[in-house]
Amino acid sequence: MPLLVMKFGGTSVADLSRIENAAKKVQAEVARGYDVIVIVSAMSGETNRMVGYVEGTSKLYDAREYDAVVSSGENVTAGLMALRLQEMDIPARSWQGWQVPINTTSAHGSARFIDIPRANIDAKFAEGFKVAVVAGFQGISAEGRITTLGRGGSDTTAVAFAAAFGAERCDIYTDVDGVYTTDPRIASKARKLDRIAFEEMLELASLGAKVLQTRSVELAMRYKVRLRVLSSFEDTDENSGTLVCDEDEIMESKVVSGVAYSRDEAKMTLVTVEDRPGVASAIFGPLAEAGVNVDMIVQNISEKNYGSHTGAVTDMTFSVPVNQVDRAQKAMEDARAAGIIKYDELISDTDVAKVSVVGIGMRSQVGVAAKMFNALAAENINIKVIATSEIKISVLIDRKYMELAVQALHDCFDLDKA
Ligand code: ADP
Ligand code: ASP
Ligand code: MG
Q1: CB of 201 closer than 6 A to ligand 1?
Q2: What is the pTM (predicted TM-score) of this model?
Q3: Which among 13, 111, 121, 270 would be 20 to 30 A from 5, CA to CA?
Q4: In angstroms, rounded to a whole number, what is the distance separating the alpha carbons of residues 10 and 86?
């Protein structure tokens, strides 16, 4: 039997009628002759609610118990989806991660897949079951504890199942009808893309476009999964939505194909750090040990010595997710107290956002950065930090200008036009 993976996100299973709507989409594929693995998220809002319960109970919580709690939303929707399918006379059953089993590392809260043995689910298909409804976002560690894959992780569950079971396609049903040039919720001119290259999608996702979890795109790219994003609220067929595919399956390629943003960033600066070999390692070592996710890093050595400092000094600026500022601050203060680093002051700016432009066309085109900076200047937006790679340029700006910046960049690269 040909097999499909269909994943339904939180808003697509937000209540019983939406679960029924999603089940009808599954029914249509079964009628076309597919066996289906359905991956479900928790009902929208549920995971946040449970994260709140954990944080309200314990500040420095045990991550194993966090996973035990926050994984449970998916168990509810998996069971309800299986029941709804049974009501439609479709032989279906639910699977929690441990029942498959979905074997993961024991990095609680951000576990990674080790393997997904097919035997149990294959045996059920062989018995005549048409649909396996699998709880997304969760797995089990070698220690026998429940794990979760990080926020948005059901996307990754879906792609991993598509790879493990050799699915014809992995369809991600969500509350928008595809991948857009930018988040359609903040730019009304955003345009839906029929196709997007894996590498561009990977950059957009990792720079904040939450339509797909970054890791899901990585897996799809590695295992050549045909990955599609489409609406669970509209009538869809095999041409709907956006196909995430290899670069050479795309005819036209613009220099910039999308704009991404990440709202909750913070910029931290260590003022007057010594300029000598080993300083960067003395700073970022303790940050890594404290589990801080450092993103952009800028060091600019002053050509002149200043203040009372006798040797060469530099400022070191880096960005972190805003909810890790306290942890980063503590790591730096501890390192200073232990004599590992010296600095005069640590300045934290917690009102910044990151805005990025992405496009594989940038590899061969000059002047993209100049054009981007020009568009921001025209809106009087000050750039605080810049980072570039082969196919993206990111800037850190004041958060209050984030939406304006996204719209200005969308306009300046003509992304509303095909
Ligand atoms: P789900 O619950 O189905 O997993 P998510 O909320 O995780 O859905 O992801 C879908 C959301 O991603 C959309 O509602 C949209 O606001 C946001 N989004 C951000 N960037 C983009 C983009 N470039 N294209 C489409 N959606 C985007
Ligand atoms: N329910 C989880 C979350 O909200 C996983 C997912 O929906 O993909 O992050
Ligand atoms: Mg999601």
Answers
A1: no
A2: 0.93
A3: 111
A4: 21
